[in-house]
Design goal:
The chain has 6 helices and 9 strands. The chain has one domain (17-205): Rossmann fold (3-Layer(aba) Sandwich), CATH 3.40.50. The chain has a 7-stranded mixed β-sheet, sandwiched between helices. The protein has a two-stranded antiparallel ribbon with strand order 3-4. It is α/β, with parallel strands linked by helices.
Length: 206
């Protein structure tokens, strides 16, 4: 897939999104952001945010970026994906928000992004804005993934895009929660499946 030109070197931004997946997000957001604001769950240090925000800048749209910035289970001290550079020793917590904001500023994309520093379910409690795109890449436990899907998929307008990251049909390749909510959405009769980009599932709201 043809790669997207971004304002900063995306390889210098911490994250787990493949460039092919980023390019797919960008291209879908270019279309979906004309239908309504975009929203992502799970920003981390902003890698996916930059792709989505760059597309939103092209259409003069907004991206809501939801993340409590305390990391998922695997990011905590002593866990597999813990990053010492994101650990606040004074507070004894993982905190990616400072790095996230710095990356947005470096890219000059602050005007396109509304950070929401809160758990997904809390941010959704009084939400009533229709959305053109929802990208789910938050916690990968089944409870967290189901919560994200149930809280946000219903806000998509017809023609809007639901994107879900880290879909592994084979359990030997990765956790199954994102795959399970992808299957749930596909079986709901509310979405049309679009071609996947590596582990990124894409569905269009009917």
């Amino acid at each position: 897939m043809e790669q997207v030109e971004l304002p900063i070197d995306i390889d210098q931004v911490k994250g787990f999104l493949h460039p092919d997946e980023g390019a797919a997000l960008y291209r879908q957001a270019l279309i979906a952001s004309r239908l309504g604001p975009c929203l992502e769950i799970g920003s981390y240090c902003g890698k996916s945010t930059l792709y989505l925000a760059a597309a939103c800048r092209q259409t003069d749209a907004l991206l809501y970026a939801i993340d409590h910035h305390g990391g998922s289970e695997e990011h905590q001290l002593g866990e597999e994906y813990h990053d010492p550079e994101l650990y606040d020793r004074e507070e004894a917590v993982m905190d990616s928000f400072r790095t996230f904001r710095r990356n947005l500023r470096r890219a000059g994309l602050d005007a396109q992004v509304v950070p929401i520093v809160a758990p997904s379910a809390l941010a959704a409690r009084h939400w009533n804005t229709p959305l053109g795109m929802v990208f789910i890449d938050g916690g990968h436990s089944l409870e967290a993934a189901l919560t994200d899907y149930r809280c946000w998929a219903g806000h998509l307008v017809p023609g809007g895009i639901l994107a879900i990251h880290d879909i592994f049909p084979d359990p030997r390749d990765g956790g199954q929660a994102p795959h399970q909510i992808y299957q749930l959405a596909s079986a709901s009769g509310l979405f049309e499946q679009l071609p996947m980009a590596r582990t990124l599932g894409l569905l269009r709201r009917l």
